Amino acid sequence: MANEYPHLIERGLTQESIYRGKMLKVRVDTVALPNGEIAQREIVEHPGAVAMVPLTADGKVVLVRQFRYPINRVTLEIPAGKLEWGEEPEATCARELAEETGLQAATLEKLTEVVVTPGYSNEKIGIFKATGLTKIAALSEADEFIDIVELPLSEAIAMVQRGEIQDAKTVVALLWLSQA
Amino acid sequence: MANEYPHLIERGLTQESIYRGKMLKVRVDTVALPNGEIAQREIVEHPGAVAMVPLTADGKVVLVRQFRYPINRVTLEIPAGKLEWGEEPEATCARELAEETGLQAATLEKLTEVVVTPGYSNEKIGIFKATGLTKIAALSEADEFIDIVELPLSEAIAMVQRGEIQDAKTVVALLWLSQA
Question: Which of A13, A37, B109, B130 is placed for a possible disulfide with B52 were both Cys, Cβ 3.0 to 4.6 Å?
Answer without folding.
Answer: B130
